[in-house]
């Protein structure tokens, strides 16, 4: 049986409240669970100690028998010092897409052409001014 540690949603509409539960991975999100090991209230301030309440001892037990935490629960476990979470890095996330790159290249070409056009007539205007005098 694949066991996971994940969030089960409770609370009213637009007022979420989550239980941190140990459950069979095949069960529905808010369905049957094996054990409740904590709570998470996202409406509280980030520095409030009641925002995440976690039984670290039970979490360690379930991790030792092979339970897999979800991404969000892994963050909570890392903050509590129960399990080290590997940092995720996506170097391509900050790069612009193909269309944005094309638009930037077009802007650069237009700016270069405008700079050339502005620079070219200036010597011609000086030559005309010197011939008139």
TrEMBL record:
Transmembrane segments: none annotated. One of its GO terms (cellular component) is small ribosomal subunit. GO terms for molecular function: structural constituent of ribosome. Residues 95-111 have a biased composition (Basic and acidic residues). Residues 84-133 are annotated as: Disordered. Keywords: Ribonucleoprotein, Ribosomal protein. GO terms for biological process: translation. Residues 112-133 have a biased composition (Low complexity). InterPro entries: Ribosomal_bS16, Ribosomal_bS16_CS, Ribosomal_bS16_dom_sf. Belongs to the bacterial ribosomal protein bS16 family. HAMAP family: Ribosomal_bS16. This is Small ribosomal subunit protein bS16. The gene is rpsP.
């Amino acid at each position: 049986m694949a066991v996971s540690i994940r969030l089960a949603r409770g609370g009213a509409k637009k007022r979420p409240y989550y239980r941190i539960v140990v459950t069979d991975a095949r069960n529905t999100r808010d369905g049957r669970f094996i054990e409740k090991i904590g709570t998470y209230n996202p409406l509280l301030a980030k520095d409030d100690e009641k925002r995440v309440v976690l039984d670290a001892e039970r979490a360690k037990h379930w991790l030792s028998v092979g339970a897999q935490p979800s991404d969000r629960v892994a963050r909570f476990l890392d903050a509590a010092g129960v399990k080290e979470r590997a940092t995720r890095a996506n170097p391509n996330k900050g790069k612009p897409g193909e269309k944005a790159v094309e638009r930037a290249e077009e802007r650069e070409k237009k700016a270069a052409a405008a700079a050339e056009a502005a620079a070219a007539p200036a010597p011609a205007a000086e030559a005309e001014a010197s011939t008139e005098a």
